[in-house]
Structure formats: structure tokens, C-alpha cells
UniProtKB/TrEMBL annotation:
Catalytic activity: a quinol + 2 Fe(III)-[cytochrome c](out) = a quinone + 2 Fe(II)-[cytochrome c](out) + 2 H(+)(out)
Amino acids binding heme c 1: C67, C70, H71
EC number: 7.1.1.8
GO cellular component, one term: plasma membrane
Residues reported to bind heme c 2: C161, C164, H165
Subunit-structure text: The cytochrome bc1 complex is composed of a cytochrome b (QcrB), the Rieske iron-sulfur protein (QcrA) and a diheme cytochrome c (QcrC) subunit.
InterPro entries linked: bc1_cytC-su, Cyt_c-like_dom, Cyt_c-like_dom_sf, Cytochrome_c_Oxidase_Subunit
Protein name according to UniProt: Cytochrome bc1 complex cytochrome c subunit
Transmembrane helix as UniProt keyword: yes
Lineage, uppermost ranks: Bacteria, Bacillati, Actinomycetota, Actinomycetes, Micrococcales
Length: 268
């Protein structure tokens, strides 16, 4: 049998890749992937930052023209209005989009009215205010769909809200000319924002008091009331036994007295 020469043995051996070459290839791959990701995220961040800066600039101008007289140029507040430092985007969105701010006139309570700002202007205002100090943000749409537990929401509403807003959300009078507004037809976002910011005389219900899920349950209950009118007929404003008793006293007893007088007069 012929013996293989050293040259033939070298040709028959499979070529081995150097360990350094493998490491180099892996390093090049990682650098390429990381570089592409960094470039993409930097571009996205730059676009977001530029958009935010534009909103803040627009909001600053709107604030100076419409709000600074009462709240101060630096949101520090004045004798005519409270500080807005730390109120968050949710508070500004609620007050501005419901027309409560700017105030039309001084009074015990800000009145709801058509907003004088567009949606984009409102966004610019709350972005500007939120940029000055942290505070409650715009609520996640996950909790605004009205698809929570209505029964649980009704229980929470009776415990925490009904003493002012009425068990059916019809609203009610408070002291010194103030009142708890009716909740009929109020948007889910505004209900949530009111709970986390406590406008007017309303207490603040943060996530430790009422969790976001339970806030969604309360919203579900209120939306259920909107979509299901009173099955008993005329609800008399959902004001409870006082209005019902007054109705019976005036119309029921009045009718009985009228019939009695008519029968007596006819007999005579």
C-alpha cells in the first residue's frame, strides 16, 4: 500500500477557522445590529423630543396669554389663582377641555362651558404645565372603555361618591353655593381625571385609594346608568325620597283635596 506524503495529508485535512476570526465576526455582527438600533431609536427620540419641544413652546405662549394673569408666569400662583406646579397634565386637560378654565367670572365654583381652545391647543397647554413638575398624567385608554365590573363599580360609587353626586349620579347641592355636578353624559376620560386630580371640592382618589381597575369599574357603572334609563318611568331627577314625597304631597294630596271640594260643591 502506498504511503501518503506529508503534502497529501495537509490537503486532505479540513480547514479550521481561527478562533479569533469567529470572535471578530460575532463582534462585527453585534456592532452592526447595535449601531442600526441606536440610529433608529435616536432618530425616533429626536422626532419625539422635537415634537414635545414644539408643544411646550406653543403651550408656553398660550399660557402666558390666557392663564398667567391668575396663575403666574412660572405657575407659582397669585392671589387670584392657585399654583399649578405638580397638578399634572390630567388636571389641565380636565379644566380646559370642559371650559371651566379660564374662568368667565369669579364665583363659588367654576362653571362648565364650551372650551375656548382646540384639542391641539389643550394638548399644548397640558404638555407645558406637565413639563414644569411631575403630576397625574392623561389616563390610559385601557381604563376608559366601560368594560369593567358594573356591580363592583356601583358598590364603590355608593361608598365614595354618592354622598355628593347622588347614587344615580344626578349631582347635588353643597355648602356656600357650591355643588357636585351631575355625571350624566360625562366622558370616561373626564371622570377618571376628576378622580385623580380632585377638581373644585372633590377629594383626590389616587391609585392607593382606588386602583385604576376600580376606577374603570366606577366608569363602567356610570356608563351603565347612561345607557339604561329608569325602568320605573318618570325618575323625578333621581333626587330620591324628598322629591318623590314632595311630588306626592303637591300633586297627590292636591288632587284629593280638589276632588273633595268638587264633590262637595256639586252636592250643594
Amino acid at each position: 500500500m502506498a504511503k501518503s506524503t506529508p503534502l497529501q495529508s495537509k490537503k486532505q485535512r479540513p480547514a479550521r477557522r481561527s478562533k479569533l476570526a469567529s470572535i471578530a465576526l460575532i463582534t462585527i455582527g453585534l456592532l452592526a445590529t447595535g449601531g442600526a438600533y441606536a440610529l433608529f431609536t435616536t432618530s425616533a427620540t429626536a422626532d419625539t423630543t422635537a415634537g414635545s419641544e414644539q408643544l411646550i413652546s406653543q403651550g408656553s405662549k398660550l399660557f402666558a396669554a390666557n392663564c398667567a394673569t391668575c396663575h403666574g408666569m412660572n405657575l407659582e400662583g397669585t392671589k387670584a389663582g392657585p399654583s399649578l406646579l405638580g397638578v399634572g397634565a390630567a388636571s389641565v386637560e380636565f379644566q380646559v377641555s370642559t371650559g371651566r378654565m379660564p374662568l368667565a367670572q369669579s364665583g363659588p365654583q367654576a362653571q362648565e362651558k364650551p372650551s375656548q381652545f382646540t384639542t391641539e391647543q389643550t394638548k399644548a397647554l397640558y404638555t407645558f404645565v406637565a413639563s414644569k413638575a411631575p403630576g397625574p398624567g392623561i389616563p390610559d385608554k385601557t381604563y376608559l372603555g366601560g368594560n369593567g365590573n358594573a356591580a363592583k363599580g356601583a358598590e364603590l360609587f355608593r361608598i365614595n361618591c354618592a354622598m355628593c353626586h347622588n347614587v344615580a349620579g344626578a349631582g347635588g347641592a353643597l355648602t356656600q353655593g357650591k355643588y357636585a355636578p351631575a355625571l350624566t353624559g360625562v366622558t370616561a376620560q373626564h371622570i377618571y381625571e376628576a378622580m385623580v386630580t380632585g377638581p373644585q371640592n372633590m377629594p383626590v382618589f389616587n391609585d392607593k385609594n382606588i386602583s385604576p381597575t376600580d376606577k374603570a369599574n366606577i366608569i363602567t357603572y356610570l356608563k351603565y346608568l347612561d345607557q339604561n334609563p329608569s325602568p320605573g318611568g318618570f325618575d323625578l331627577g333621581n333626587l330620591g325620597p324628598v322629591s318623590e314625597g314632595l311630588f306626592l304631597w303637591i300633586f297627590g294630596l292636591g288632587t284629593i283635596i280638589g276632588v273633595t271640594v268638587w264633590l262637595t260643591a256639586k252636592a250643594n
